[in-house]
Design goal:
The complex is a heterodimer. Residues about 1-15 of chain A have low confidence and may be disordered. Chain A has a 5-stranded antiparallel beta sheet. Chain A is an alpha+beta fold. In chain A, a hairpin with a 2-residue loop joins β4 (about 130-140) and β5 (about 145-150). Chain A is built from 10 helices and 5 strands; from the N terminus they run ααββααβαββααααα. Chain A is elongated. By secondary structure, chain B is of the alpha+beta class. In chain B, strands 2-1-5-4-3 form a 5-stranded antiparallel beta sheet, sandwiched between helices. Chain B is globular and about 50 Å long. Classes of the chains: A alpha+beta, B alpha+beta. The interface between A and B is large, with 45 and 52 residues.
Chain lengths: ~250, ~270
């Protein structure tokens, strides 16, 4: 946002691009092929790299396992894993709130936060030395993938620039996780088409859902898979679907 | 429906925008309404509203038309154009004539002329020194909008901005930047729901949007919530309305804007 603080002008850099080379490397490794690395190992590496690249202490990544719950996939370290476990055990916390509301949850100081929000989680996290938690839903419209949770041992909000970096990372995580779920070789180029506002891509997702009687997530992966197979951009294939020149009916 | 006087339409539009101050509202619906009203009020060919995401990228949140080439014109302005100018400087770009404008924003100007537009205006969406996006108006003929017209359009953009920023103070500590992410995601949910409805009911996406919106209104639902439930399969896609229902729907909407409760249980159908 253009603000009066002068601390940040997001336009001083390329929109949609991370602000540091470190983060840029992280994104390319996130979207690159994983050379047979296991998903857990891959995402543990991601969490560690994210914790190093962002001004936070630790990072964890939770994935959706049912319509109303997530489970920990990977974390940067034992403390972040403990923070995630606490939330699972207590049934409350920023990860859960972000997942259910679809909105980022930013708690800049657990020590001065109202206890009514997370009566169990807040004192337990403080005992672990955690002062701040920031949870970001990984989502594409109605498609919910999981939550990225950042924690810190000192109070304070992220700056607008840091938030912008986190959002770029979140978009890349969504695509990376979808790629895993799709079990296909990764394709870095579509992060922008999925994360950005490309109305045809999302309309086509809805149409393919009905055509294949499947979920939005599967529909998006089928759309992506088709584009990949034909060496076309996702947007081009989506436009064909919306124009009703391409249908996925009878393809299964 | 009889043509409403411009003054009355304007007054009602301000009331619609001010609705955000008194009860729960849907950001996307607010912006869609504003885009449509601006086309009527300023005799424009098209109107779009762009908000910047946290990484400073302008994204189309509402447009008066689904025309692909129009949407591309909005997107193009992430590189150059009046919206980017209004967003970065916080100053309006008025009566920009696309015929003479080849030197400034050459790519944007050429693309806009190709679609058939002759002039363009862009007004920043701002509150004091905070700029969150821009309102973009296209005209098919060269226009010299009066300073009064510009002031009215800017006032509408400002009232909508106040409504958007209002969210921040009403919902605990969530910052504007986060709320914008939520709004951006709502826009995506609505696009997905339009696809579901378009396929299920055999209609075009633009008509699918109207079906979703009128169903949500009739039943007192927030558009984004209803759209999500359609994509999740928790709600049926809305039925195609019988011909002749459109004017009634529109009338109801205007009524809603003049102070009647939105809750379906209180609104006689």
């Amino acid at each position: 946002m253009s603000g009066s603080g002068g601390e940040v002008n997001p336009l001083s850099r390329e929109p949609g691009q991370p602000s540091t080379p470190q983060l840029r490397d992280l994104l390319s490794s996130l979207l690159a092929s994983r050379d047979g690395a296991t998903a857990a190992g891959h995402y543990r590496g991601l969490c560690r790299a994210a914790a190093a690249a962002l001004p936070v202490r630790g990072v964890s990544l939770s994935l959706i396992v049912s319509p109303d719950s997530t489970t920990l996939l990977a974390s940067s370290d034992a403390t972040s894993e403990r923070v995630a476990d606490l939330q699972f055990t207590l049934g409350e916390g920023p990860t859960r709130d972000a997942f259910h509301s679809g909105a980022p949850v930013l708690e800049p100081d657990l020590d001065s936060a109202s206890l009514t929000r997370w009566p169990g989680f807040t004192p337990a996290a403080l005992d672990l030395g955690i002062r701040t938690v920031f949870a970001f839903p990984l989502q594409v419209g109605a498609i919910r993938v999981g939550v990225l949770c950042l924690d810190n041992d000192r109070p304070g909000l992220l700056t607008a620039r840091e938030l912008a970096d986190v959002n770029v990372l979140v978009d890349a995580c969504v695509v990376s996780v979808l790629n895993h779920l799709g079990d296909e070789s990764t394709q870095a180029g579509w992060a922008d088409e999925v994360g950005g506002y490309m109305s045809v891509v999302h309309q086509a997702t809805g149409m393919i859902m009905v055509q294949l009687a499947t979920t939005a997530e599967r529909a998006l992966l089928r759309l992506r898979g088709h584009a990949f197979a034909k060496n076309l951009s996702v947007a081009v294939v989506a436009a064909e679907v919306v124009a009703r020149r391409l249908s996925f009916v009878n393809w299964e | 429906m009889a043509q409403m006087s411009r003054e009355r339409l304007l007054a009602e539009t301000f009331v619609e925008m001010a609705d955000t101050l008194v009860d729960e509202f849907d950001v996307i619906e607010l912006l869609e309404t504003l885009a449509e009203r601006c086309v009527e009020l300023f005799d424009a060919a098209a109107c779009g509203l762009l908000l910047a995401d946290t990484s400073g990228r302008l994204r189309v949140m509402a447009a008066s038309s689904e025309q692909v080439r129009l949407l591309e014109l909005f997107q193009l302005q992430n590189d150059e154009g009046p919206c980017l100018e209004a967003f970065t400087t916080g100053q309006p770009v008025v009566n920009f004539n696309l015929d003479e404008a080849t030197s400034q924003w050459p790519r944007f100007s050429a693309a806009a002329r190709d679609v058939g537009y002759a002039s363009v205006q862009a007004l920043p969406m701002r509150l004091r020194d905070q700029v969150i996006g821009a309102l973009n108006l296209f005209h098919a003929k060269p226009v010299e909008s009066s300073s009064d017209d510009i002031a009215v359009a800017q006032a509408l953009a400002d009232v909508a901005t106040i409504g958007l920023l209002q969210i921040r103070t009403r919902r605990r500590e969530a910052a504007l930047a986060e709320q914008l992410q939520v709004a951006l995601n709502s826009r995506v949910i609505i696009e997905q729901a339009k696809g579901v409805v378009a396929e299920r009911r055999g209609v075009e996406p633009a008509d699918a949007f109207e079906l979703l919106r009128s169903h949500a209104r009739r039943n007192g639902l927030l558009l984004s919530n209803y759209a999500r439930s359609v994509v999740d399969g928790r709600s049926e896609a809305p039925d195609v309305e019988a011909p002749g229902e459109q004017p009634a729907k529109r009338e109801r909407r205007r009524k809603g804007a003049t102070g009647q409760p939105r809750d379906s249980s209180l609104t006689p159908e």
